Amino acid sequence: MKLAVVVQRYGADISGGAELHARYVAEMLARRHKVEVLTTCAHDYVTWKAHYPAGTETINGVAVRRFAVAHERDPRDFSQRSTLVFDRRHSVADELAWLDSEGPTSPELIDYIGQQAEAFDFFLFFSYRYYHAYHGVRRVPHKAILVPTAERDAAMGLSIFGPVFRAARAVMYNSPEERALIQAVSANAAVPGVVVGIGSDLPRETAPDRFRRKYDVSGPFVIYVGRIDGNKGCGELFDYFGNYRPRLGQQLSLILAGTSVLPIPAHPRIRHLGFISDRDKFDAIAAADALIMPSRFESLSMVALEAWGLGRPVLANGRCDVLRGQTVRSRAGLYYENFAEFAEALFTLTSNRPLNQALGENGRRFYERHYAWPVIQRKYEDMLGQLSRAAAAPAALEALPGWLARRRRTLAPAQDVVDAIAKGPVAYDEPAMPEASLRGTPVAGPSPRPSPVAGRQAIRSGPHGRGHRPPGKGPDRRPAGGRPGPPGAPSGSATGSSARGSGASGNTGDAGNGGGSGAQAKGSGGQKGPRERQDRRPPNRPGRHRRPPRRNG
């Protein structure tokens, strides 16, 4: 087949996010197909300023064709338009103006897609929220495979994206939570889709000592890898770690690896290494006690998968449905929702060595079962095969309203639309993708079950659900999971101040499906944290968290 991978920016020197995801997929598919990447000349995700020359080049054996960006992003204009469509009643015209302001706007790229539609079998569009994906899917819906990389942010509530999710030939989801979110907001369950995610080129061996010598790192540390940005939760991470008080003589450091757009606090136990090579990154993760993922907005988190692939546990922000769901399904880490839980979970992961190793081994098995390259490639090849064997259905693309209707400000604030969608992780493993009939008959598989409590999707830890057992069965007397005890305590023992966890305490076996979420940490030992609004809200009142207008690619 001849395939086009369409993404907002592309380069060997662009790490993390949808761009790296797209490059990995392009290079994987190029082993069996003819692949061409269609992208822009931009490198900087804030301004989309032209960096690469327009034209063609080859990167890692894959042809790349670049197109000019019509205009750079004006941060003030984008912020104002974001406030309008996210927080106020607005029109379709307002949403389209927001999309153009967000960028990278490249009419030349869209024209090329239309002109060369018959030259390609399929177009894989990465990142639903950008100009190229919206207009590209609308131009070739009968050949469009969407890799949305969607997060639970206000952009999901914009009305212009629903028709795009419904018109694509197929959707390759990153996680069960992403699929549940998109299907809830767009009603696109009839579109063929599968949870795929992405693999990583993990090394066969790592050299933790080499990393320590190269960067003069001594003592235990936890690591954050990625863009150091407020939108990634780094501000809260700095606040929480700065208020964390190690116990038992522990001298724990926080290592940061990645490009920073946020000031790094002057703290004796926080160290920023800047952008590092893949080899150094993998060696650093292997040397760390745990990886921290503080973001509230993720569609997958490639670095968390890499940590699990290397046998390291993850401490994740439990307010991100995706991270929490991945932690529960993998039984390979702990999650937190406030400072007290962060402090208790961090201490548990870095002081309880048997638990740390058990979670790491669970993570390694979880990665190999779901994210090893043969698994990822099979899912892509199966979907391409299904689509190629099926007759292309007539494009069901919904037309935009007329000139006057397009300008009527009758649409609800996008944030209100997202807030109305049920929250919470989806605690089931993605089954092997069956051969199923396409459009009109969804691929069989479990569906998220609504929870009767607080509007959250149920986390099911077995065939009868969490907290339920079949008639005639007595209570389970095995040690409870998810409540890591103090150092030296028997595995599975509970403490008075426990962090929320993945249910893996004392269980080194493959966790497979679900697990307990543990209890809320109450803090201990003089831990003093920042005041948090969510702790002052009445019970069962969902919080409204809208991040600032997104600047990144």
Short key terms for the protein model shown above:
about 550 residues; alpha/beta; Rossmann fold; 2 domains; eight-stranded mixed beta sheet; six-stranded parallel beta sheet; 16 helices; globular
Written overview of the protein:
31% of the residues lie in helices and 12% in strands. It has 553 residues and is of the alpha/beta class. The chain folds into two domains: 247 residues, Glycogen Phosphorylase B (Rossmann fold), CATH 3.40.50.2000; 216 residues, 3-Layer(aba) Sandwich (Rossmann fold). The strands form two sheets. It has an eight-stranded mixed β-sheet with strand order 3-4-2-1-5-6-7-8, sandwiched between helices.
| Strand fraction | 5-15%
Count of DSSP strands = 14
What is the chain-wise order of helices and strands? EHEEEHHHEHEHEHEHEHEEHEHEHEHHHH
The CATH class of the largest domain is: Alpha Beta
Overall spatial form: globular
Order of adjacent strands in the largest pleated sheet: 3-4-2-1-5-6-7-8
CATH domain fold name of the largest domain: Rossmann fold
Q: Write down the overall mean pLDDT.
A: 82
Poorly predicted runs? 432-498, 503-543
Tally of helical segments: 16
Q: Report the biggest beta sheet as strand number plus sense, adding barrel if it closes.
A: 8 strands, mixed
Q: Indicate the radius of gyration in whole angstroms.
A: 23 Å
- Terminal CA distance reads 28 Å
CATH superfamily of the largest domain: Glycogen Phosphorylase B
Structural class: alpha/beta
Number of domains: 2
Percent helix? 25-40%
User: What CATH architecture of the largest domain would you give?
Assistant: 3-Layer(aba) Sandwich
